[in-house]
Each structure stands twice: as structure tokens, then as C-alpha cells.
Amino acid sequence: MNLTRRISSTFPQVIGFAKRSFSSFKFPGDSSDSLPAPSSSLTHGVHVFHCPDAVGIVAKLSDCIASRGGNILGADVFVPEKNNVFYSRSEFVFDPVKWPREKMNKDFLKLSKMFNATRSVVRVPDLDPKFKIAILASKQDHCLVELLHGWQDGKLPVDITCVISNHDRGPNTHVSRFLERNSIPYHSLHTAKENKREGEILELVLDTDFLVLARYMQILSGHFLRTYGKDVINIHHGLLPSFKGGHPSKQAFEAGVKLIGATSHFVTEELDSGPIIEQMVERVTHRDNLRSFIQKSENLEKQCLVKAIKSYCELRVLPYKTNKTVVF
Fold first, then answer.
1. Which positions ≥6 away from 167 have C-beta within 8 Å?
2. Which residues are within 8 A (CB) of 186 and not within 5 positions of it... i.e. 6 or more apart?
């Protein structure tokens, strides 16, 4: 049985996040009495932590935030049974005058060293740059269009550096007009079995934080993944691990399934086998035909990919074991 602990500021009498001063916790050479006067506005921050399990981690994390005048709004902690590892994600508000961004990084770095953390990441959405992404897509537009509209509406906290496709799109298509209107570069790179144009793609995505495959129907090589060295998020139009590879909707239809799904996962060298970030399902019946299967699947794909990207940008996704994820 896995142990999951949910901590929230709605229980101050138990945890004391909202009302305790935490004056007992100070970093060497620091004094809360000498902190600048607070500003009129508070800023939202998120911190994720992954380290060997030990007594007192939650206390030190909360003390670190509270000693700088911050207030924890909520925290998730996951300690898997018999694995001796600790995962947490904390959301908090703080005064940026009282706790400057650079000082925050140093404070969490000290905690990271104290607990020999594998991962310690802090993000302040209002102060930090948005994640820069490139989108790779093939002929089908439904996932690409959903991402572009989500970006335009401010629902996806990313900056789209470019769209890359192995199919031409005419100048009068909806996608082409949208990209031109919003000054997003579009690169059409025809691929062949003997030339996937991966070198050119790498040059175009060099400055991105992660890549999104929005129904990009090409397999990225191990060399590409190793050279890029950052995360690549894919959407698979099937409920993995079933129906891997091509035409999963047709596979599911022929198998007579009663639930169809979409899976967003990290890309690895093994096809459709990377750690899963998000999955969505919908019921189907004997009355559905292949066309309605595909229509339902496409709707799931759009929603699933957007949710996976949002979870990733909000620091909700952490690696777990060799091929799993913790998603807070």
C-alpha cells in the first residue's frame, strides 16, 4: 500500500501552516527581524521536492517558507511503501520584497543539499519566464489547433517558438493564417524513410524547454532524443499499453472494446512505452462505427494533451521508478 499524505492550510490546528511564526527555523546568518517591510501584494510560488525519505523533511520545507513570511496554501506528499523516497509539491504565497527570487533559489538549494535531493525545483509563474516549446505535427490538425487556441486564450502557460511539420499547409488554411497572424514561425520539413530531417529539427528547437508531439507521425530516433536532452511529450490515440503503434482506433474497434482512450506520455526510445502523464477514456458501444470511434478518440486526444502540458508546466509531474510518474 502506498502512503499518500495531503496537507492543507484548511487544517491550521493540526499542521499550523497558516498561524505559526516558525521563528525556530533560520538559515545560518539570517534574521527575520532584519527582513524588509512587506509589499502590498503577494505572489504565488510552487516547489517540488524529490529526495530519500527522512524524518523532518515536511517540517524543514514549511519552516523554510514560513521563516521568509510565506504561507503554504496546500501541499501534497507521497512516500511509496518500501522505497525510501519522498515526493512533495507545495503551493505558497510570499512577498517578493521580503523574499527576493534569487534568495528563494538559494534557500531551497540549501534544503536540497541538506536532504541530498534528486530534484528540487521552485517556480514563480508571475516572475519566471514561460516555458518555451516547439510543436511538431503531421497532417491532422485537431491537437495542434487545440494547443494554439489554448495558448491564445492564456490557458497554456507556454511560449510557442515554432511549429514544425512534415506536411505542407497551404497559405489559406486556418492553421497557416493563425500562425502568420501571431508571428509564430512555421517550418515544413518533408521527411523520408532514409532522412527524417532530425538535424534540422534539432537546430530549430535548440532554445526550447520541451517539445510537444501533436500527432507527429514520425518516430524520433534515440540519437535525436539523446542530443536534444530534454523532455518530449507525445499524445497517443489509444489507451496504452494496449493498442501500441499505428491505427490504434482501428485496432480498438476490431477488438470490440467498450472503453476507448487517449494517452499522453514522455517519449523514449521504445515506441509508445514512455512514462504516462495523463489518460482519458470514453465509453463506446456496439452502435459505434469506426468513424464515431475516431471522432471520440480525437476529442479525447485534444483534452488529454492539453491537460498533460498544463500538469507539466505546473510542476505536477515527477519521475517515479524507471518508467512511471507521480502526478500531483
1. 138, 139, 188
2. 162, 163, 164, 165, 169, 175, 176, 179, 180
Cell numbers describing residue 155: 490557458
DSSP codes joined into one string, 241-297: TSS-SS-HHHHHHHHT-SEEEEEEEE--SSTT-SPEEEEEEEE--TT--HHHHHHHH
Going by C-alpha positions, the residue among 167, 212, 209, 160 that lies closest to residue 188 is: 167
DSSP structure class, residue 15: T
163/137 Cα distance (integer angstroms): 7
Residues 6+ apart with CB under 8 A from 211: 133, 134, 135, 136, 205, 228, 230, 231, 232, 233
Q: What is the radius of gyration, based on Cα positions, of the chain?
A: 23
Q: Is 153 a catalytic residue?
A: no
User: How far is Cα 85 from Cα 307, in angstroms, rounded to an integer?
Assistant: 26
Give the pLDDT confidence of 19-43 residue by residue, as tens digits.
333 333 444 444 444 444 445 589 9
Pair 137, 147: CB distance under 8 Å: no
List 95, 141, 209, 272, catalytic entry: 272
User: Under a CB-based contact definition with an 8 Å cutoff, are residues 215 and 138 in contact?
Assistant: yes
Q: Are 295 and 302 in contact (CB under 8 A)?
A: no
**Tens digit of pLDDT for each residue in 275-304?**
999 999 988 888 888 888 778 889 999 999
Please, how many CA atoms are within 13 Å of residue 141, restricted to the half-sphere of its CB?
A: 12
CB 48 within 8 A of CB 325: no
